[in-house]
Write a structure and sequence with these properties.
This protein is mostly helical. It contains 4 helices and 2 strands; from the N terminus they run αββααα. Helix 1 runs antiparallel to helix 2 and helix 3 packs antiparallel against helix 4.
Length: 154
Amino acid sequence: MKVKNSIYDVVINGCCLLLLTGVTVFLAAVWESIPAVVPMHHNFAGEVDRWGSKGEMILLPVIAWAMYLLITLLEQFPDIWNTGIRITEENRERAYRTLKNLIATMKLILVGVFVFLTVETALILRLPAWFLPLTLGILFGDIAYWIWKLVRIK
């Protein structure tokens, strides 16, 4: 069963594509001004604990684009999703819509994280201490919200 795209899906995918295109253009525009060595890993406090070549930085948007494309592909096959609830003819459409919303929102969050990391790295900025707890809070809060909606489906 294919789940039709809703306005929510169009908006989420539009935001993802805008972020991904924007960070790709940004990186190309500032590439010459980026130093040869950039921060590539941060500890829990946001302090740099590994430096790498600026060429390594290309992996961040590449991974973000790959995740976006893979997740978008997986959204097309709801029959392979682990729903956590019993799918019946009566609840199939609502359950798959809820799961597709969960997946789409997670996709946007992950793309946003990779875009943020790319910009922070390109500008040689220290990762803020709030970044990890906030990111995890948003990600797990989103998952909890959609799972709560899912289990309410009869």
